[in-house]
Structures are given as C-alpha cells and as structure tokens.
Amino acid sequence: MTYLRRYWPFGAVAVLALLPYAGVGIPGVFDGPLNSPGTLQLLALCLLFGGLATGYDLLFGRTGLLSFGQALFVALGAYGADVLITKAGLPLALAAPAAILLGTTVAAAIGAIALRVTGIAFAMVTLAFAQVGAILAARDAWGLTGGDEGLALDVSGLPSGLVGVVNTYKLYWVSLAYLVIVMIVVRRTVSSPTGRVLAGLRDDERRVGVLGLNPYAFKLFAFVLAGALAAAGGVVHLLLVQGADPKIAGSELTLSLLVMVVLGGPGTRYGPLLGGVLYTYLDYRLTHVAGGLPGPLKQPLFVLGVIFILAVYFFPGGIAQLRLRALRRTL
After folding, report:
1. Which of 57, 132, 322, 329 would be a feasible disulfide site paired with 272, CB 3.0-4.6 Å?
2. Is the Cα torsion angle 97, 98, 103, 106 positive or negative in sign?
3. Please, which contacts does 129-134 make with residues 24 or more away whose CB atoms are closer than 8 Å?
C-alpha cells in the first residue's frame, strides 16, 4: 500500500503521456477520440491551468497571500516570448528563458513593494499593478502588444515540430511537462525547511518573527517563485493558442485561478491541480453547450458560479478533501 502511494504519480504521468496514442472516444465527455487534435488541445489547456493553479496555491494556500496580480506574470511570459519571437526575430530557445526571466524580475520588483503591506492592502496593490499591465496590453503599448486584437505569434520562430494541427500532441506533451515541473518545484519547496516557514507564515506570522526569522524575505521568495512559474505557464499558453491576448492580463484570470484553488482545495497536494483541470474543462464544455439552454443558463459564467457556490457549500475543503471525509465516515 505504501509502495502504491509513493509511486502512483509516476504511473499517472505515464498514462497521460500515452494519451496521444489512444484512439478511443468517450462520448459525452469529449467531441472526438482522445488522440484527436481538438481533444488533445483541450486536455493540454486543462493541464496548463492545473499547473498555473498549483503555482498560485504556493501563494494563497501555502503562504496565505491573497494576490490579485498573478495574471500579470502569465501575461509577461506570453507577451514577452511573443514580442521577442515575432518582433525581434529570436528563436523560441532564447525567447522563452528571456520571457521567464522578465516575469521573475518584475515579480521581484512588485513583491518588494507590495509585501510592505499585508491583508487587503496587499491584495489591492497587486491588483493595481495587474490592471496597469492589462491596460498597457489592451492599448498596444509602444506598438508591441497588438492592442485589443492581441499579438499573433510568428510561427517561423518556432521549431517545426511545434507548428500545425498535426503536431498538437507535441504541444500536449509540453503542457504535461510544464505541469510535472510545477508539481515537483512546489512539492520540493513545501517539504523543505522554507516550506515549513511558509506554512508558519500562513498560520501565524508573528510567531515566525518571534523565532528570529524574517517574514518579509520568505514571503518575497514565495511571491517571486510563484511569479516565475506563472511566467513559464504564459510561454506554454502562447504556444498552445499561437498568440497573446489581453484577456490573460486581466484580473479575471487571477480570479479564475483563485476559484480553481478553492474548488480543488487550497494548501493540498493535488487539490489545485484537480480544481484547475475541472474548471477549465467545464468552462470549455459549457461554452459549447450553453447556447441551447434556457434563460441565464446560456451564460457559462453563471453556470460555473452556481457550481462553485454549491461546491463550496457542500465540500468546504475542496475536491481534495472528499477522500478524507469518506475515510472518516468509514471509521
């Protein structure tokens, strides 16, 4: 039993990696076989947002920091790589690390300022920075972002294996690799001495200060690491949708990440991942089927909101707590 608990994630990753070779269909769940480009694209987005939610949970669930600016770092990764490839003519191998470095640097600068305050003031400062980024993206700042239409990616700067519908399965693997990296980074961080300090900050920041540790430094570390993971996710999002759009810079994305984390279970190992996958899948499916529904049910966000309210009411600990509650009832 202990062996299964320790190694089942490796089996799960192996199964996910082999999905592009599975030609079976699941009627009512996906529109085509598992290895069809449309299904793989949806699954890739689910894995991507599962990783983004897990990275955001490092702030919210693990450290207790409610940030409304996480979308800014996703946008910096996406727009940064897009501008470097499309405008500057750099290859992906150089543009991607540069964009992630940009997101990390900006996260360090914003965190150094925002973390001088706490609570709702911190949330508002991060929201203000995110709104500035969204406005700059929407207004085609310096002629780089493409304005409301976004900036289409010049695929000539990408490896040929990442271009075209026929290579959707490779982009799916890129999303899976991103998710695995995020899970490893977050897991290593949480299980380290630094992770225990972050948990202490979430529970009682004053006690951490009494122990002689610097809460500000540890919170800044978590903020910068979460920003770097978000910027890397922005690069993956750019590859999946072949462009950068102002929507990824808006506060709506951060709110969506927050909902994913709460839905899955904040501060749990796999809860944010499950919440991100479920939310992204429902968002896609409801958008395609809502047209035939009556009244407010035509609005996917309305249906998602109702589902979220019901989930929080009946499962306050999130999806990840369902197994624990089931075990308690059997004891």
Report:
1. 57
2. positive
3. 129/69, 129/72, 130/68, 130/69, 130/70, 130/71, 130/72, 130/249, 130/250, 130/251, 130/254, 131/251, 133/71, 133/72, 133/75, 133/76, 133/249, 134/71, 134/72, 134/75, 134/246, 134/249, 134/250, 134/251
Tell me which residue of 170, 155, 171, 185 sits closest to 52, measured CA to CA. 185
The Cα–Cα gap between 43 and 39 comes to: 6
Q: Which amino acid is at 186?
A: V
For residues 127-156, one letter each, b for 16 or more C-beta atoms within 10 angstroms of the residue's C-beta and e for the rest, the string is bebbbebbebbbebeeebbbeeebbebebe
Distance CA 96, CA 239 (A): 10
Alpha-carbon distance of 239 to 89, in angstroms, equals 16
Model confidence pTM above 0.90: yes
Tokens representing 98 are 């540069």
Q: Kindly provide the residue ranges of all beta strands, DSSP E only, lying in 208-326, ordered along the sequence.
A: 243-244
Q: What is the pLDDT of residues 131-179, one digit of tens each?
A: 999 999 988 888 888 888 889 998 888 898 898 889 999 999 999 999 9
Q: How far apart are CA 299 and CA 304, in angstroms?
A: 9
